[in-house]
Amino acid sequence: MSIFPRISLKPEVTEHLKGVFLNKEVLDAVGHQEAESRFHKLLTCLSHPPSYTCVRASTHLASLEEIRLKLGEELKKQMCGSSAEEVSLQILPHPRIPDVLLLPVDGPRPVKQLSSEVVVGAQCGNAVLRGAHVFAPGIVASPKYMKAGDVVSVFSDLEGKCTRGATSFQGKRVFVGNGVAEMCRSNIFCTDEPAKGIGVRMIEPLYQSPSFDGVLPNLAFLQNLPSVVAGHVLGPRPGERILDMCAAPGGKTCHIAAVMGDQGEVVALDRIRNKIDRIRQNAQMLHLRSIRAYCFNSTQAVSSDPAHVTEGPPFPPESFDRVLLDAPCSGLGQRPNMASTWSLKEICSYQPLQRKLFHAAVRLLKKGGVLVYSTCTVTLAENEEQVAWALDTFPCLTLQPQEPHIGAEGMLGAGLSPEQLRLLQRFSPELIWDQTETTAPLPCRADRDTIGFFIAKFLKN
Predict the structure, then answer these.
(1) What gap in Å lies between CA 258 and CA 60, rounded to an integer?
(2) Residue 372 in 3-state DSSP?
(3) Is 264 annotated as a binding residue?
(4) C-alpha to C-alpha distance for 347 and 300, rounded to whole angstroms
(5) Within the chain, how many helices (H) and strands (E) appear?
(6) Is 326 marked as binding a ligand?
(7) What family is this (predicted)?
(8) Which residues are catalytic?
(9) Which CATH architecture has domain 225-460?
(10) Annotated binding residue 257
């Protein structure tokens, strides 16, 4: 159901995306009316959360059924302390992905807005729609005399125009639910140190899904379904040496190590030091000893002296059996995302970086090795056009079938053949946006009601 406005984009970005989704190849295939309908559905569905929560289970530590039962027990304890006790708790295994559990999201729900209002930033509001509480740093406005224990309505500031510390805000905003203040106003805005912890505990969210804060941290990991699929498509095997080029926040790194039974080596690279520290902490928490994380620029990860061998980067050419390039991108597939202030220039700036990373990835991959390229965006330039460019630039690369393949095929418009498009995997939630309220079982709906995401798998011959 559509209850939020379409994602708010700069006009130049909207026109660019419309040109992408109504390109000549698409128009020739489906016609103008269908192409335009898909485009408008995309803008609508991006501002709404998926109809389920995806949990990747640490099946290297316990069986999926054992984790499912433990998770159910923990979440029932949480629900007993909220207004959600009447909500039945379903935790379903995915029929094709052996380490995924799915939890239905209840929403949108009929929640009455209150006179006492808290305003949060758009990113915080998006997190609330996925089941999070409101953490103090996300609060930008609150009632003048708000104290701990007050019941408040929470609104998301779509355009980032609310002044921090304001007592009210009438700009462009959307209601995301009601909660109980855990802090008084002065402890949020009038302290020498930035406020930490939960600022508002959600008791009546517009979309009801469990909060996973502190719930089975070593057994249950929140991860979007397509991201889990990318790890399986890579196909890591015990004893291999694998490179995760843009590893933060580390979910895929830990997944790769778990899938290969923690036997071999997974090298994780990222340019930001504190993100590398987080990857190491997660690896330790999940008892994964095969992960080696380094703060390093992956575009420079190929050693200029192939004879110089070190444990860390840069590495000699052909050092890895498999490479995952989950590329930095415009992120226009994230859900929910009600507003983006990015310019067209910013969105288009990622393509050159992605190609630099591609050059490094191909050089670091052994002959006979597998390269998986993925993004969480919906543009042609960052997805299918990059595949066409890679096949033309690197004759040693060939596209490979993906397993599992639960998304749609690639999008028309980059000059790829029908056979090549079938080998790609594009998660396109707009294709089923008006069909999500059917009686189809959740696992069937979940495969399509995802974030926008793209996966390509190559073999180096």
Answers:
(1) 6
(2) strand
(3) no
(4) 23
(5) 14, 18
(6) yes
(7) Belongs to the class I-like SAM-binding methyltransferase superfamily. RsmB/NOP family.
(8) 376
(9) 3-Layer(aba) Sandwich (3.40)
(10) no
Longest dimension (CA), the chain: 69
Domain layout of the chain by residue ranges: 52-104, 117-205, 225-460
Helix (H, G, I), strand (E, B) or coil at 270: strand
Q: Is 244 annotated as a binding residue?
A: no
Contacts of 277 (CB under 8 A, 6+ apart): none
- Which class in CATH covers the domain with range 117-205? mainly beta
Half-sphere exposure of 233 (CA within 13 A, CB side): 32
Under 8 Å between Cβ of 124 and 135: yes
What is the residue-level pLDDT of the chain in tens, covering all 461 positions?
678 999 989 999 999 999 999 999 999 999 999 999 999 999 999 999 999 999 999 999 999 999 999 999 999 887 775 544 445 689 999 999 999 999 999 999 999 999 999 999 999 999 999 999 999 999 999 999 999 999 999 999 998 999 999 999 999 999 999 999 999 999 999 888 889 999 999 999 999 988 888 899 999 999 999 999 999 999 999 999 999 999 998 999 999 999 999 999 999 999 999 999 999 999 999 999 999 999 999 999 999 887 777 789 999 999 999 999 999 999 999 999 988 888 999 999 999 999 999 999 999 999 999 999 999 999 999 999 999 999 999 999 999 999 999 999 999 999 999 999 999 999 999 998 876 555 667 777 899 999 999 999 999 99
For 224, which DSSP code?
-
